[in-house]
């Protein structure tokens, strides 16, 4: 494809991938206003985030087989239409229970963007370029935390929290137009793939029994769950504990998003000298050290607002590196089942994210310890799984080839 086509495809895939980050980040500054308007508490509003993450986790398992069976475009249109309708429903919610339900439905539609974007990367680019392309996508995705909370804060102030969901619906409608006009079809429908439960489970089993996929999807799942603890707890910590305004919180959130953007692009250069496996191990070790310091410092009362922001920045620098490398290593063994592989990988990540956000809500104690403790625990667990599982992968590579074509590719 030409450079212009390459740019357009990356932009569309990136915006597809931003639907869920925008859906999560944009309404965070509105938590206090939502709680007040719906006569509930912050921890109950946090459960609307948990519901969204649960919806993404479950529905990715549905969209994966659909994307493999019917191609990429038809499931995309259906899912995004559901998202638009649910977003309008969120805007007109009159109770916290209705908001939680609408957020669940919103996730059931919007998560198609996550699965389809990664499957299309596998369709449209050579295997040895996947990690680099995913790094570019994360660059687009990483811009959303800089924009979304700030827009959400000002929209809440000017028009009320309901307006945020109308904005999300309008953005998604524009993305659908871009898909229709400029996005290649990718993998064609495969009528030989059955959607019967037994056949679907068989496809998932084919994917999950691959040690490389299982290892790096679990490692990536736990490692990328750490920011969900930050997402669930940060508005309460900064706005209620440190008493910053909704607008100030948006700017803090935007600043911390730089911690994801810069390393994402550094990853493209690191891949020229190191393997994805080496990069992931080093990054998780770094985050474990920073996380431990963050937990000890929080417990000892070392940090004011600026100290906590600094530690969060240092910790989040690892997210832009671990994510694309773990995704690339998870997807590399698959061609025919790329949609199912992307769905399982995304389901793991969002399922873990839902558990993590719920954990922050459950352990809520009017301090920042639940947030920083869960964040650190996520990377500790990811590093442990990586160390235990690498021997299995090394043994398999040495003694037998992988079933799927193009699996033995150095990333």
TrEMBL record:
The chain crosses the membrane at residues 7-29, 49-67, 74-94, 100-121, 133-155, 161-183, 213-231, 251-271, 283-302, 308-329, 341-363, 369-388. The keyword Membrane applies. Pfam families: MFS_1 (PF07690). One of its GO terms (molecular function) is xenobiotic transmembrane transporter activity. It is found in: Cell membrane. Keywords: Cell membrane, Membrane, Transmembrane, Transmembrane helix, Transport. InterPro entries: Efflux_drug-R_Bcr/CmlA, MFS, MFS_dom, MFS_trans_sf. It is a multi-pass membrane protein. GO terms for cellular component: plasma membrane. Its main location: membrane. Residues 9-391 form the Major facilitator superfamily (MFS) profile domain. GO terms for biological process: xenobiotic detoxification by transmembrane export across the plasma membrane. Belongs to the major facilitator superfamily. Bcr/CmlA family. This is Multidrug effflux MFS transporter.
């Amino acid at each position: 494809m030409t450079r212009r086509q390459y740019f357009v495809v990356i932009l569309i895939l990136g915006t597809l991938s931003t639907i869920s980050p925008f859906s999560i980040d944009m309404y965070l500054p509105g938590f206090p206003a939502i709680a007040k308007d719906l006569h509930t508490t912050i921890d109950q509003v946090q459960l609307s985030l948990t519901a969204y993450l649960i919806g993404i986790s479950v529905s990715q398992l549905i969209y994966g087989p659909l994307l493999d069976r019917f191609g990429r475009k038809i499931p995309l249109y259906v899912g995004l239409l559901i998202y638009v309708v649910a977003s309008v429903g969120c805007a007109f919610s009159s109770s916290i229970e209705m908001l939680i339900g609408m957020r669940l439905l919103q996730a059931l539609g919007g998560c198609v963007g996550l699965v389809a974007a990664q499957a299309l990367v596998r369709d449209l680019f050579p295997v040895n370029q996947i990690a680099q392309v995913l790094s570019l996508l994360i660059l687009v995705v990483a811009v959303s935390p800089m924009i979304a909370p700030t827009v959400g804060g000002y929209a809440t102030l000017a028009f009320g929290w309901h307006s945020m969901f109308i904005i999300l619906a309008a953005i998604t409608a524009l993305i659908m137009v871009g898909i229709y006009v400029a996005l290649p079809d990718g993998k064609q429908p495969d009528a030989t793939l059955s959607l019967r439960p037994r056949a679907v489970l068989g496809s998932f089993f084919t994917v999950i029994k691959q040690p490389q996929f299982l290892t790096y999807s679990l490692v990536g799942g736990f490692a990328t769950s750490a920011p969900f603890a930050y997402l669930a707890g940060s508005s309460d910590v900064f706005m209620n504990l440190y008493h910053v305004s909704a607008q100030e919180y948006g700017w803090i959130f935007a600043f911390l998003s730089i911690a994801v953007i810069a390393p994402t692009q550094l990853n493209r250069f690191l891949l020229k000298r190191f393997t994805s496996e080496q990069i992931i191990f080093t990054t998780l070790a770094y985050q474990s050290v920073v996380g431990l310091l963050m937990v000890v410092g929080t417990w000892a009362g070392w940090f004011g607002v600026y100290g906590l922001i600094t530690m969060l920045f240092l910790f989040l620098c690892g997210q832009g590196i671990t994510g694309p490398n773990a995704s690339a290593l998870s997807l590399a063994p698959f061609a025919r089942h790329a949609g199912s592989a992307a769905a399982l990988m995304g389901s793991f990540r969002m399922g873990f994210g839902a558990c993590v956000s719920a954990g922050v809500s459950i352990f809520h104690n009017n301090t920042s310890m639940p947030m920083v403790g869960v964040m650190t625990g996520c990377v500790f667990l990811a590093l442990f799984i990586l160390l235990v599982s690498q021997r299995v992968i090394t043994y398999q590579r040495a003694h037998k080839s992988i079933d799927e074509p193009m699996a033995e590719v150095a990333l």
